[in-house]
Amino acid sequence: QLSSAPTPAETGELVLVVGATSGMGQDVCTDLLARGYKVRGLTRRAEDVKRAVVGTELAQVDWVKGNLNYNVSDVEGIMGGVKKVIFAPLLASRAGLDPTYLEQSGGAALFEDIEMNHHIYCDAVREIARLGAKQGMDKFVLVSSSNIATTSEKFVQSDGRAWKKIRVEPSLLNREVIEWKLRGEQYLRASGVPYTIIHAYSPPPRPWDDPDPKKYDIAILQDETVGGAMIRSDLAKVCVEALVRPSTKGVTFGAIDVSKDLSGDTLSLVQKVNKQFPNWKQSLDKLASDPTSRWAELRDK
What would the DSSP string read from start to end of 167-182? Predict the structure, then answer.
């Protein structure tokens, strides 16, 4: 029987981090390096990143060039020697970052965004999992969206979609991204690769956000009626802890930051969980495994 305690990094064990140049991704890389792992970071501008991190801990990362927005075939060239993966890229949205481009394109930029996110959250997850299964990958940690249902009955509706449980603005882009994330989760479960799926939402920093992690408690939940945002540094901690704990294989869970002024049903649920597991890391060892009967049909399709 596997111990639930984190295992020390084995000599030469390599972790691929997708989304490594974001604020959260950099925290993930730094934590992994401190634990003794070798880290490979995927970025569209590898040479620029290498120059920018000279003299820092992140200079130890093996920065490799790849653009999953358009070319999923880049995956094959970066998977050599990879034993573990943390997949946590940011939403790809050129239209959202550049309203002028959206207007000038006559709306076509929105559909370009949809296609990019299809490549990232569905095709790239599927390809990394496929290659990982071939080379005996130990663990694939996938950061997906908050409030996606965690039971097989809710994952696959009659039309293959499951949007009704999702607490996001019902825009076309959001609906499509959620569909691709759901499909990516399904392919990962079916791949045979040991995995952990984290449902979490980490919005970009805003002037009115309080960035002090000391004012929040991390809560680990398997209840899709509860949702909330996370400080990115906290989400990075959860990702790495999930990666190193054998007990989180084959598990899907939600992670939120709970502020001191939380109230209502969410507070009651969090208090119940935290009373049983005062340290959020302990709760990772007591999570229910995902049902497995419905995913095999997706394998190799």
Answer: -S---HHHHHHHHHHH
Most confident of 209-218, 232-241, 264-273, 282-291: 232-241
Element (H, E) at 10: none
> What is the per-residue pLDDT for 218?
84
As a whole number of angstroms, the distance between CA 243 and CA 84 comes to 8
d(Cα 33, Cα 147) in Å, to the nearest integer? 31
Q: How far apart are CA 245 and CA 164, in angstroms?
A: 32
Determine the distance from the C-alpha atom of residue 57 to the mean position of all C-alpha atoms in its chain, rounded to a whole number.
Answer: 23
Beta-carbon-side half-sphere exposure of residue 224 (alpha carbons within 13 Å) = 20
pLDDT, tens digit, for every residue of 223-241?
A: 655 556 778 888 999 999 9
C-alpha angle 251/245/216, rounded to 5°? 80
- Cα 272 to its chain centre, rounded Å, is 26
Cβ atoms of residues 19 and 49 within 8 Å: no
Q: DSSP strand E in the chain: where?
A: 14-18, 38-43, 62-65, 82-87, 139-144, 195-199, 216-221, 251-259
Q: Between the CA of residue 94 and those of 89, 91, 175, 195, 222, what are the distances in Å?
A: 14, 10, 17, 30, 33
Which letter does DSSP use for residue 44 in this model?
A: S
**What's the whole-model pTM score?**
0.80
